[in-house]
Structures are given as structure tokens and as C-alpha cells.
Amino acid sequence: MADETSFSFDGRRYSAVVVSHQTLRSFDDLRTRVDGIEPVRARPTLDDEGHTAWRVDWLSRQNHYPYGSTLRKSARQQRGDGRYRHRCLIAAIASADSAATPRFVFASPHIRVVGAWCATLEDLLDHPRPQYAVPRLDALFHALGTSSTAYKATQITLQIPSGVDVEKVALTGKSPLISSLRATLAPVTRPYAVRLEMPREGRRPLRLHLDRHGNCWWHQANDRAFGVAAHALASLGSDGYLGFTHDLPTKRIVSEDGFS
Amino acid sequence: MRQFLSALPLGDQTYKITIGPSTDAVSRGGLVSPVFPAFQLPLDELDDAATGLLLCFPEDPAGFLSVIQNELPRDLQSKTMISYGLASVIVMGQVDELRDLASAQQDRLTAFELWPLTKLQLVEREIERYARDATSTPLVPIPTASLPYDAGCQVRQLNVNLALALHRAATYAPELVGAFTALAEAVALLVDRFRPAGGSDWTVDDVRQHHYYVSRVLEVNAGLAMVISQTLGGVPPLLSSEYPVGEYGLLGIGAATRALWSFYHHLRRCFLEANHAGRLAENAHKLAPFDPFLNWATLDYTLWDNAPAKLADLPSAAGRTPAPHLLHFSSRFGFHETEYTLGASWQSLHASSSREWHLLTVTHEFFHSQVRQITSVIYPRDTDWDRLSELFAGEKPTNALESMQVALVLAMQHYGAARSASAAVGTGINHLDEEGFIPHPTATEIQDTLADELRYFQEVVVHVLDFLYTFHGDAATYLAAIWQSWSTVPSVTERIHDYLLRSLCALASDSVLPKRDAGEAFKAVFPLATDSLSDLAARFDSPVVAQAVDYLASDLGQRRLELEFTQAYYIARFARVFFFDPKVATALRADDLTSLEPQDGRQYVFEPGEYPDSSIESPLAFLSDRFEHETINAGPELEFPSLWQLLLLVDPMRKVW
Predict the structure, then answer these.
(1) Which of B134, B265, B297, B614 could disulfide-link to B170, CB 3.0 to 4.6 Å?
(2) Which one of B74, B582, B614 has the shortest CB-CB distance to A126?
(3) DSSP-based three-state secondary structure for A50
(4) pLDDT per residue over A84-142, tens digit each?
(5) Any chain B CB within 8 A of the CB of A73?
(6) Can you tell me whether residue B8 is helix, strand or coil?
(7) What is the rounded CA–CA span in Å between residue A180 and residue A178?
(8) pTM of the predicted model, to two decimals?
(9) Which pLDDT tens digit goes with each residue over B504-533?
(10) Which of B67, B478, B596, B607 to mutate to test the interface with A (most CBs of A within 10 A)?
(11) A71 to chain B, minimum CA–CA distance in Å?
């Protein structure tokens, strides 16, 4: 039987948000302002995509994994202060404007940990509050449906605002954005989410899911996948497909099973 | 939670300023207005230590409150209040800090007044004021020289009312500038129809026509007076700008009324883009006819679904822009709509999130104008009556317009006959023969039918549209909404049968049945209505709802409803195909702030006291989400959520003229 305490996060779904705050200019700023972020290693674990990322333990007084989750036992309680260690990933991604505030991708194997981390940030970073990235899906759908890009949409989720029984429809395939079904549905639907396939050399592409509130997730076989996801989010930002809002994305998550 | 900001004159331009539960200042010549803590936090005391109040006129109240919530020091939240007035955000604090705040946020404010206080006393000449320097292109006054005296007086008043409204809107509610310009253009066309002065040769018809057009200008003037008072009242200098309703006298109700306009703008924009009446007028006479089922034995509504004249599929056409309504709260008429005015019930001002006075009811009034526009295209012209009689005698329609005209008459004819027959249920009188046969009418009889039944027809269609557009086919929520709203209208009990029939017709418009037969539809919707209303009666104490449930349970009630429904169902299907457009239903409810399948069932995740960064894109989706989850009835605890809801609706970008 597998040892739960040595639970591997690899091969799991990771949920993430992209956050920005004017006082957070570096990972060290983040560690200084947010108590309880401890890198697992002294050096960034990933840098092969031009961004820096850390595998960290985030210490919190509460175990944020839900009861019944196999992850719950992975949050070891420290002796001394009794805080729980939540294994997470943080990447600093550059924005297109090098003078602008960097953005941080915070990822965890459970959305509740992401939500709790955001709530902690909200408390600590007042005046102003942090901002979160939200994808501009209208523009992204238009671009992906009309031009060639480094990534492609292989699933789109459409909301049917006036539907009483059916609220959403997901189209999957090689190019759902240019399908006749999507053309038929376009007048009565609104973009809600997208699954982007990010190519990886010699490996299966990473599937990055994004909803319009700024929640993102992917399945992660190892830390390199996080690097790909962070790189993808950076690309979306530099291509102009990310906006920023104070509204918390994690309040608008559908469920742990997501919207796929 | 509600308190009153009071300004009590002490003489020599000095006022005592207090915040408390009392309105006593009014009886001593003072002014008051209700205020609430903006963020549902305990409000700091306005005491001797406070040296000022900043009364802000934000262009976008929710946006400004979002800045206070997200960008500014947190302690400001317990010093911030909201009000119904154009000065919708009020901050207390030290004068220097308030001056800095006003300066830093000046771009977001159309105006402000900074009241320096010394031991809670305000000296009027020490007030610091700012108002944005905004001007609009003045309107060219409509000439009055050639008009008869009575008409000239009205037009003169109109010119001045429009100039005043435009001038104030340019500064305090810029989203309305286009509305007043559009209204001026529409009314100028009315004045063109006046007869010139010196009408010694006028016929009776001339006189009648003249007064008809003058009365419409009168209505516009009345509407403008309400708008100037409600939407554009309560502007600097506040101590001199008294709003004539005591409880709101100091600050007025400008922000609340802007919310009403904003909701209306959203509805209007979606329908203007769809341009239903314009497309129908341009194309109906060119499109292929459909079978209006003169012979009801051949009824098959699926044929209508594929008709080229189906509203959603009509080819595009040049846009028609009807004159905008003038929006206001009305304590005399409640929710109502006329050609130029649209009123929300006065109670919605302080209880717009309650189930009885919910602002959603505005949609019903709005749909009256949409139904009127489409009906006016279909409605037969003077030259059509004889042709219609020929069609009833057996000739085939040659285009979609003729089919629609026959269907319109047929709908009213059957509905009228059924109403007569149903009234006789239990009396032994039978107006219909066993096959429900109605003889072919003459041209005169057709005109009489339309004159008698048009109002009933339009009411049923409006209910269908409200059910499909506003409640997107959610039967339980729809029935709860309309019946809780009607629970405050005693006259409903006198015509409970009519109201139940409309409810059933609305539900039937969405029932997809393999056999599109009125009897089957009745079997589907009758128990649905009975269950929903019984459930409502169990949790909502209303004699009106209880009476409706009793009527549904009675044998006589059921028999009458079934008899009328079998005829009125035709109207529901007709409305579904030729008055409803699913694309508009989508546009009305589209909002990126909404979430899919959220855990607590809410589509919008924020609660009263929270101000999202992004504007509400769909007031309709937001209001219906609030309605679906608001479980309590009107009471003091709903006053803050109601005002919060209104402020979130105000959107200066929502202009469509």
C-alpha cells in the first residue's frame, strides 16, 4: 500500500491563479510579505522556460485539504507552531513590459489551497489589494479561430446564458473553434473556458485549462509541466490575452472536477 | 441599519449635522436622507472628533466603491456610507484627508461637496464644491410661434424641460444625454402633427387629432418633470437643492433612478440591436406564407417553427429607433408603462430586492412596448380588412404578413369566444357549438374582434415573453415572481381566473410536447402551476396566492381554465415563434461575471457590501440571480441589500441612443 505521507503530487491535477501586486517585485518580496513560504530547495527548481519557479511548502494554521481527500494526510503538521505544510509551486513570470510588476503563478494540487492562499494574500496585502489575471476569452477565441499560434484550443466550454436546463456545452476536437457546431452556437452562447494544448518537444502536449474568471488547471506528471504551464500563462500575458482584476477567481470555481 | 444624515438649520448659514435614526430635523426646517454603511461594517461615529464629510457624486458608484474597497486604506471602509442620491457615496474623516481623497479620485467624480465640521456644525459658506465642467450641444428649441396657444404653452414648457434635463445630465448622468436628444427628435415629429393656429376651418376630426398629439406632448412633459426631480435632483449646492419627498429631501434619489435607467438601457439595447419590428416591417410581406390553421383540425405548430417569418430568422433591415421611455419611480401608478414613460413602483426604491417589489417587474412593463411594436407591424391597415375577410372565406395567404394577420385575428377570435363560453360554465349557456366552430367573420366583425380583444392578446404575449426572456423558462421562479408581485395588488383577486390563465399560457409557451395539442399542454402545465403555487403558498403568506391555489383546486376553476386554455394556447405558440427571439434571450443574460454551477447556486458570487471590480454586464441576469436566492419578504433588513443592488446596476457606459 502506498505511503500517504510520501504522496507524490506528480500525475495530479494542479489548480492555479496568476497574481500581481505592486509591492511584490521578486520571490524574496513574496516570502517577506507572506509568512510561511518555505522553498523546498534553496535554488529555483525550474528555469528552462526563461522563468523561475520554486517548489515550496506553504505553512498555514489550518489544513486546507478537504476531509476525505487523499491529499489531507500530505499536509504534515509541524511540531512547535502546529502549522500544516502544503506543498505548492510558485513561478515568477515576466510581463511584456519589463518595468512592470512581475506576476506570480501559484499552483497547488487542490483548489482549496489556492483559495486559502489568495485569502491570506488579501489579508496581508491591503491598500491596494492584489490583482488576479483573467483571460480575455473573446479575443483569444477570435485569434485561435483565425490565425496560427504556438498553442491551440482543443476544447472550448460555452455558456448558454438563457438556458434553463442546459447551462453549458463543451466542444472538443482538433479545432472546435472553427467547427460548424460552434458557428451555430455562437449567437446563443458566451465563452466560458478553454483547454489549450501547449506543445512540448518529444512529449505529449500539456493541456492547460482556463476559465474566464482566472482559474487554471492542468495535469502534471512532473515539475517540468509546471514550467510549461507558467510559460504558457506568460505567453498569454505578453500576447495581450490576460487582463487583471481584484475579483477573486477562486470564488468562482465550479468544483474540483472543474468544467471539462 | 438605516440612519439619516440630517442638516438642521441653526441660523446665520449654520447647520447642525448629525447621523442617526431620527428625522426630527425635518419638522424644524431641516433636511434628511437615509444612509447606510457601504461595506456592512460598523460605521464610525460622527462625533466631535470628525472634522468633515465628503459627499461624492461618482459617475460609477459601484466602481468608486470598488476602489475604496480594493485600493485605499482599509480603515476608510468603516467611514464610508451610501445613499440613494446622486451624492451616493459619503465619507467622514479629517478635512485634509478628505480633500486629498477628493483630489485623487476627482476623475471618478462628477461633483463633490466637502463639508468642514466644527463640533458637528457646518457653516454653509465654508463648503468646498467641485462639479465637472461638462456641456452638451444645446438643443434647437421647437418653434412655437405658429401654434395655437394651448399647444404653444406645452411646447414652450417642453423646450425648457429638455434644456434643463440635458444641462444637468451632461454633468451628473452623462449616460442620459443621448436619451434626451433622441426624445427631443421624437417629440419634434409629434409637434409637426399639430394643427396651426387660427383653426376656424377645423373639423371634429382635426380637433380630435390635434388634442391627441398635444396630450402626448403633455405626457412627455409630465415624464420630464419626474425625471428632472428624481434622476437629476439632489445636485450641488445640496443644502439648497431640496428633493420634495421628506425622507429623501437632502440628497434625493438620483442614484437609485440612474439604476432604473441602467436596467432599462440594457433591455433596450438588446432589443434595438435585434430590430424586430424593423425587420418584420421590411420582410413580412416578401416572405413565404405559413398556415395559420384556419382549420384547427390540422393544427401542427411544428410547421411554424420552420416558417421563414419566424422572428429569430428574419433577414436584417434598417434600424428603427423608437423614442426612449422616461424612467421614474411612481407611488401613484406602481409598475406601469405608457408610450413615453416607464414607472417602477415607489416601494422598489427601498425594497427592490424583496420578492414583492423586485425590480425585475420592470421587464414586464418593458415587454409591453416590444409587443406593441411588433403588433403594430402585423395589425391590419385600412386597406386590409376586406382582404382579411376573403382569407377567412377560404383564400390562401400569399405572404407571411397575411398569414400573421389571419393568425392574429384567429387568436383573438377564439380567445374571445372561449372567454364568453367559460364565463357560462355551470350556467347551462353554450356559446360554442360542440366543435368549437366560429363562423367566418365579415370585415367589420374582424375589426370589432381586434378592438375588443387586442389588450388581452397583448397581455398573454407579454407574459410569454417575460417567462422566456426574464425567467428563461424557469417555471417555479417565474410563478413565484409574478404571484408575489401580484400579492400586493388587491384587484388581482377580482380576476384571479385571468391571471391564472396568463400564467398557464406562459408556461405552455415553453412546453415541448411530441403532440402539440392544447389538451396535452394543459395536462403538462396545470399540475406544474398547481404544485408551484401550492409550494409558494406554504412559504409566502399571501391571500392572493392562497386564493389562486383554491381556484386551481376547484372543479369549476379547472373546467373554466381548461376551456379557455385550449383556445389561448394558440396565442402562446404564436408568441413563442413570432414574438420571441432566443438570440435576444442570450444577449439579455450574457455576463462574464456569472459562474457556472456555483456551489450555493448563485451565478454571481458577491454579497451585499461587496463591490466587484467589473461592472454588471447583464442587469437582468444579476437581478434574477438575486431574486432566485432572496428568500425573505420586504422588511427593514432588505433596505441595505436593495440599495446595494441598485448601486451595482448604475453603469455610465450603458448608453445606447
Answers:
(1) B134
(2) B74
(3) coil
(4) 999 999 999 877 666 778 899 999 999 999 999 999 998 898 789 999 999 999 999 99
(5) no
(6) strand
(7) 7
(8) 0.92
(9) 999 999 866 545 578 889 999 999 999 999
(10) B596
(11) 21
